[in-house]
Specification:
The protein is 36% helix and 16% strand. It contains 19 helices and 16 strands. The radius of gyration is 23 Å and the shape is globular. It binds flavin-adenine dinucleotide (FAD) and iron/sulfur cluster.
Length: 479
Amino acid sequence: MAKQPMLKFVKIDRDMPEKRAAEDRKEDFNEIYAEFAQAKAEEQASRCSQCGVPYCQSHCPLHNNIPDWLRLTATGRLEEAYATSQATNTFPEICGRICPQDRLCEGNCVIEQSGHGTVTIGAVEKYITDTAWENGWVKPFTPLQERGESVGIIGAGPGGLAAADMLRRAGVQVTIYDRYDRAGGLLTYGIPGFKLEKDVVMRRNQLLADSGVTFVMNCNVGEDISFEDIRGKHDAVIIATGVYKSRDLSMPGSGAAGIVKAIDFLTASNKRSFGDTVPEFESGELNAEGKKVVVIGGGDTAMDCVRTSIREGATSVKCLYRRDRANMPGSQRETQNAEEEGVIFEWLSAPKGFVDSDGTVTGVMVQKMRLGAADATGRQAPEVIEGADYVEEADLVIKALGFEPEDLPTLWGQPELPVTRWGTVKAEFKSGATDLPGVYAVGDIVRGASLVVWAIKDGRDCAEAILERFDAKAAVAAE
Ligand SMILES: Cc1cc2nc3c(=O)[nH]c(=O)nc-3n(C[C@H](O)[C@H](O)[C@H](O)COP(=O)(O)OP(=O)(O)OC[C@H]3O[C@@H](n4cnc5c(N)ncnc54)[C@H](O)[C@@H]3O)c2cc1C
Ligand code: SF4
């Protein structure tokens, strides 16, 4: 008998976990949402309408069994809810925190279409797995049988880690190579702690290490070890290197000191959260304290930069974006959070150049824009409004204009590695297989800058394809 019947959306309103007040959260890098109490999680889960064809599930890249784990949560069967959630998602508590749910699962929740607020799917997913960690249900695993095959994975971001998890569970010997000192990729050094606290990522890395995955850190493939060497050591190789080449601005004054890349700024801040000494932060180069900060860009990286600047003690933080609010690529939820924390958005504003004093930036020359006719993609193209230029004062300018892939064929001396005209690795849909025998690719290096949940999906699919190949080979050998 269910403790808590479902379909309560008619009587119970949508409610998110409590959000810390802006004045309080501006003071630290801790997450801004509290955890649901059990009764609240049960109540919110019970709002689900248990659709026969769940659109939330079909719009979740991992096709999570959302109605099932909501029902199990609503009826207090949390350990089963965790098992169900974990069956399709390697890092449910991470997705629960940082997936743009409004564009994925929650954006397609049927009860919202009927005028009620969506089920708080992300917050419940986070609650289930955080509870599982607290209760010791998340344990290192020992494969039923060790296998002889080994896989080398280049890149310890969510794509590489998700593949490692699946392969190791099947008994494969897995080695991950990463040029950073800590695993997690952008989960560790890109996304700030106020969206995803670092111990949430570190405990996942430790779990994989405790389950027998070997991590080779501080190892830049192409410099410290060659791609060929890695191929020679393993039966299959997965490229999961993400995209790290920052898009740049080439305009008058753009070489001035005080104009920095978003990834450098965020990495420095995240390293400091671990207690590391970061010389570029200590010198002030990557430190927003006491500065007038201008961030250029309107995506999620820009939102992370403005909110990090606030927490570092900037005197003012402005964000310049060439389109308007409705047409920005970043999440509306994060924009609202930034506004609450004191960020000022200058919509329809684009940089034209930079002003400096003795080579150090003092301002951004801004041109005002309006939205004109739609371009080939259907988006209205921004046009300059003549005669409306002005100078926005700035001591620190952060460029958050997006990322492109590094030139892997050149960096790794592998001209035969197939890439697209954008430089992403050309890989087969689903399996991630490339034209190089035994070489696979997953995550941002295939899709271009994307989402954590898609990297996880790619990693899992690729691991499945590799296991199928190993099994087929073993079957032939046995014959
Ligand atoms: C600031 C920022 C905020 C974001 N916020 C969100 C968000 O809120 N929600 C969301 O879903 N997505 C977000 N994203 C996107 C998300 O982080 C990425 O889509 C995801 O991390 C991609 O995973 P990946 O495994 O492909 O690559 P990454 O996470 O980039 O990991 C790649 C790893 O490969 C390593 N590597 C690269 N080259 C080499 C080499 N030559 N040798 C050895 N190691 C190498 C890197 O050190 C890194 O550890 C954000 C991205 C950024 C930049
Ligand atoms: S993984 Fe992301 S899209 Fe899927 S249910 Fe969780 S929060 Fe929603």
